[in-house]
Design brief:
By secondary structure, this protein is an alpha+beta fold. The chain is built from 4 helices and 4 strands. 36% of the residues lie in helices and 32% in strands. It has a 4-stranded antiparallel beta sheet, covered by helices on one side. It starts with a helix and ends in an 11-residue tail after the last strand.
């Protein structure tokens, strides 16, 4: 009986000490989550050729640059965030990306790269892309 009682007491003590208080995420953690969600929304809008959403979520000049290159039938773009840096005015998400574009002519193009996507901290609007731009359809060399 004593052999069973001691482990049972230990199990009860361990279980009673775990999981009562939830850990609240920090402001930076919440901001990081929102920035990554925003970039996913931009990626989804790009794949769906949703010009209105792209204009709303990106800086005007960058939106026009992206919209002029929507000459594909279908695009599959994947982001893998690596590092998020938060400064006073900006949030920079460093990521790896890979994409494939399918044209109406039956051509399939693939590309991948590394980019820093810079968002305005105040409104989470994408304002700049440093590195390899994932929103550019690759050029076919013939």
């Amino acid at each position: 009986m004593k052999k069973i009682l001691l482990p049972l007491i230990l199990i009860i003590l361990v279980l009673s000490g775990c999981g009562k208080d939830k850990v609240k995420p920090s402001a930076d953690s919440l901001l990081t989550t929102e920035a990554v969600k925003r970039l996913e929304a931009v990626r989804t809008a790009y794949q769906g050729k949703d010009a209105g959403t792209l204009r709303a979520m990106t800086e005007e000049r960058l939106a026009e640059e992206i919209l002029k290159d929507l000459n594909f039938e279908k695009a599959d773009l994947f982001f893998t965030p690596k590092v998020v840096r938060i400064t006073g005015e900006f949030i920079t998400v460093s990521l790896n990306w890979q994409g494939s574009w399918h044209s109406a002519k039956g051509k399939d193009l693939e590309n991948r790269g590394v980019a820093d996507l810079v968002l305005q901290r105040a409104d989470l609007k994408l304002i700049r892309i440093d590195g390899d731009n994932p929103f550019v359809v690759p050029v076919v060399k013939e």
